[in-house]
Design brief:
This is G-patch domain-containing protein. By secondary structure, the chain is mainly α. Helices cover about 50% and strands about 0% of the residues. The N and C termini lie far apart (about 130 Å).
């Protein structure tokens, strides 16, 4: 059975699926007289139109950047011609070479123009340097202030700690004096020297706790003075009661013993002043050592031992009892 071939495109038919279209060549198209007049008029209008501030600034910036990026001197400028007349050559330096060996690597003359720094603000000449100076001074002042504050804080903490330690040692010294006074009272067969303070000279007390006794007597005298002032409003100066109790007579300062004690309180005591000038720690240690040597009493153990060996006591200092 014979097959019938499919009809294909004939020579007279066009194949639009594979057809290509070429772009018209506009360059070869001749400009007409009307088009030329319009173009010339448009260019003239663009040239005559005043440029805006932004456009002028952009052109100025572009020119400036081009000039700054080119370190070479423009040979067409008047400056180059003047330097050339003075012997300047491109790549060389102006002026006399002051180096010892003439043209040497140590030549410090400039070979390129001094760079230009554009001023963007409206400040006067030197304003930038003044601002930098003030900024640098402000930074230094702030650094010094922070450093001073830190030092002051450290000093304050150290001073506070030192003051607390001083108060603690003063308290220990006061406690040691009271212990020494009590032990002395026990040696005096239990007699209370505080009740009969006016019958004993102040200088007879040991200087280690004499200040404690003197301060007590001063407080007593101040109390008597206040009492005298109160009683002077209700008593006559010549009033004398033979039946008056001894304590009242002492309070009214009519006893010679009281007058003698008052006189002694006003006298200078060089030994007590010299001892009082010592550091609280030194005064405390002296009293504590006297307690150990004289009464075998350990201030840190709060105990009195039977003999000088003081067996069981860790040591003589506060650190030994920690």
């Amino acid at each position: 059975m014979a097959t019938i071939p499919e009809p294909g495109p004939t020579e007279e038919e066009d194949d639009y699926l594979t057809m290509t279209f070429e772009e018209p060549d506009t360059n070869t198209k001749k400009e007409t007289l009307t088009q030329k007049k319009r173009r010339v008029a448009r260019e003239a209008e663009e040239r005559s139109r005043p440029k805006s501030k932004a456009e002028l600034a952009e052109e100025e910036r572009a020119k400036r950047e081009a000039a700054l990026n080119n370190p070479e001197v423009d040979k067409a400028s008047k400056g180059f011609k003047m330097m050339a007349a003075l012997g300047y050559k491109p790549g060389a330096a102006l002026g006399k070479d002051l180096s010892p060996n003439g043209d040497s690597p140590h030549d410090t003359r400039l070979r390129e123009p001094i760079s230009i720094e554009m001023k963007e603000d409206r400040g006067g000449i030197g304003a930038d340097a003044e601002k930098k100076r003030k900024f640098r001074e402000e930074v230094e002042r702030k650094f010094e202030t922070e450093k001073r504050q830190k030092v002051d804080a450290d000093e304050f903490r150290v001073r506070q700690q030192h003051e607390r330690e001083e108060k603690r040692r003063e308290g220990q010294f006061y406690g040691a004096m009271k212990v020494a006074e009590r032990l002395e009272e026990e040696d005096l067969n239990g007699e209370d020297t505080r009740k009969t303070a006016t019958s004993r000279p102040l200088s007879s007390y040991n200087v280690l706790w004499r200040g404690l006794v003197k301060q007590r007597l001063l407080n007593e005298r101040e109390r008597r003075m206040r009492y005298d002032m109160d009683q002077s409003l209700s008593r006559l100066p010549t009033y004398d009661d033979p039946d008056e109790e001894r304590s009242d007579q002492i309070a009214l300062s009519r006893k010679a013993q009281v007058e003698e004690v008052d006189f002694e309180l006003d006298q200078e005591d060089e030994e007590l002043e010299e001892f009082g000038a010592l550091d609280p720690e030194q005064k405390r240690d002296k009293v504590v050592l006297f307690l150990r040597e004289h009464w075998h009493y350990c201030f840190w153990c709060k105990a009195r031992y039977p003999d000088a060996e003081m067996e069981g006591c860790p040591g003589t200092t506060e650190e030994d009892h920690d």
